[in-house]
Write a structure and sequence with these properties.
Helix content is 91%, strand content 0%. Helix 1 packs antiparallel against helix 2 (63-89). The chain has one domain. By secondary structure, it is mainly α. It is rod-shaped and about 90 Å long.
C-alpha cells in the first residue's frame, strides 16, 4: 500500500460516515417539520368543523337534523382522534 493511503482511506471513511449522519439528521428534521405542518393543516379546519357543528346543534330544533348533526360531530371527533394518534406515532 502507498504511504499515507491508509490514512487517506480512514479520513475518507470518517468523512463519509459524518456526511451520512448529517443526511440522516436532516431527514429527521424535515420529517418533524412536515409532521408539525400536517398537524396544523389538518387539525385547524377539523376543529373549526367540530365547533361549527356544535353551534348548529345548539340552535337546531328539528330532532332529525340534530341527530344528523350529532353523527357529523361524532365522525369529526373520531377523525381528529385518528389524526392525533397517527401524528403522535410518526
Amino acid at each position: 500500500m502507498y504511504e499515507g493511503a491508509e490514512s487517506y482511506l480512514m479520513n475518507l471513511q470518517d468523512y463519509t460516515m459524518t456526511y451520512q449522519l448529517k443526511i440522516e439528521q436532516e431527514k429527521e428534521r424535515m420529517a418533524m417539520n412536515t409532521t408539525a405542518s400536517v398537524s396544523h393543516e389538518m387539525r385547524t379546519p377539523l376543529n373549526t368543523a367540530i365547533q361549527f357543528t356544535k353551534l348548529l346543534i345548539s340552535s337546531e330544533t328539528d330532532p332529525t337534523k340534530v341527530k344528523y348533526l350529532r353523527n357529523i360531530l361524532h365522525a369529526n371527533k373520531l377523525l381528529l382522534c385518528n389524526i392525533n394518534n397517527n401524528l403522535d406515532n410518526a
